[in-house]
Amino acid sequence: MTSGLSPSRRVSPAAALRTKALGVGYERLLRPVLFRLGGGDPEVAHERTLAAAQALGGVRPLRAAAAALHSRGTSRRVAGIDFPGPVGLAAGLDKFGVGVHAWGALGFSHVELGTVTALAQPGNDQPRLFRARESMGIINRMGFNNPGAAALAATLEQAGVRRGNRAAGIPIGISLGKSKVTPLEEAIGDYLTSFALLAPYADYVAVNVSSPNTPGLRSLQDAAVLRELVGALVAAAREQNPADPVPVFVKVAPDLTFDALGEVIGVCSDAGAGGLIATNTTLARDGLVGADRGLADEAGGLSGAPLTVRAREVVGWLAQRTDLPIIGVGGIMTGDDALAMMDAGAALVQLYSGYIYRGPALVNEINERVR
């Protein structure tokens, strides 16, 4: 069992001022512009953000300037991987790996690319991304839109990224999902195809069986099926590199019952998984407030502040019952949220919606406060 104890540390006045300046600049200047792009279409803002990350990653002086503005975290070792800080970028923001050289300069200790599938696919019809602004949440039904595992492998090859070489300055995780057209009974082969193509570039691999946006995907969390899937991926990792197999993490949904989560723990422990990622987005809508209640009927997964309590609850429950390391993700909107998640048992945390609403100041805040 993991203690997760992560006491706050004293923040220097200079660091606090830098974080405040980043927050003011983002929330008063940059965020209003981003939120108006494309007539307020969140997907347009997402694409522009990735384009900016790609540009930043391609120019070394710009990366150095960005790094000077961002606080560095305290390093930690998780699942045999050295992370230079506590906070990473969750899967879903940089699906295609285009900003792989930028995220370390922006204060992140790791980035989880994807989710990627064996076959290229366009994802669900637009609109498929919605801001719940009063609730500080996001609803998405993107549907694993991505160019396919081979294309991501080519992107990382061109970027000079290989497992363990730290070409991006930080560890790289890659989230794998099932291609929509692949029948559920053929899911394991689909995941193995992606794994074979991408494991050479990944410091860890995440098995996404918990997105609500691919029909039937969450059924892969059922104990018997999950045991076979994780076992096959762990065996492939050991075959590919017997001396140092790439760790396989399993990402779980916040909507699972505790009995089901207990089964997941048993399966992952028995199959040799390297850790857990908790949690994915939720199908619940009870966290929506005010005008955002009008979004309750939109299909997709809800992330952000409405998930804060449940994600922490799941992490705490898991941490009390397993020694597997846990990456905590879901509703981390403040430094206090990150501290609470780590006190619940998370070894690392990840951001997605919090980064959309708070920007770079949130990364600094967590790096400055979490030991």
Report the strand count: 13
Q: Within the largest sheet, what's the order of strands? A: 3-13-12-10-9-8-7-4
Secondary structure category = alpha/beta
Tell me the quaternary state: single chain
SSE layout and pairing:
Layout: H1 13-40, H2 42-57, H3 60-69, E1 76-78, E2 81-83, E3 87-89, E4 111-116, E5 129-132, E6 137-140, H4 149-158, E7 172-176, H5 187-198, E8 204-208, H6 223-240, E9 248-252, H7 258-271, E10 275-278, E11 301-304, H8 308-319, E12 326-329, H9 335-344, E13 348-351, H10 353-358, H11 360-369
Parallel strand pairs: 3-13, 4-7, 7-8, 8-9, 9-10, 10-12, 12-13
Antiparallel strand pairs: 1-2, 5-6, 6-11
Helix pairs in contact: 1-2, 1-11, 4-5, 5-6, 6-7, 8-9, 9-11
Structural overview:
With 371 residues, this protein is an alpha/beta fold. Helix content is 39%, strand content 15%. The protein contains 11 helices and 13 strands. It has helices spanning 13-40, 42-57, 60-69, 149-158, 187-198, 223-240, 258-271, 308-319, 335-344, 353-358, 360-369, and strands spanning 76-78, 81-83, 87-89, 111-116, 129-132, 137-140, 172-176, 204-208, 248-252, 275-278, 301-304, 326-329, 348-351. The strands form 3 sheets. It has an 8-stranded parallel beta sheet. Strand 8 (204-208), helix 6 (223-240) and strand 9 form a beta-alpha-beta unit. It is globular and about 50 Å long. The two termini are 19 Å apart. Residues 2-7 have low confidence and may be disordered.
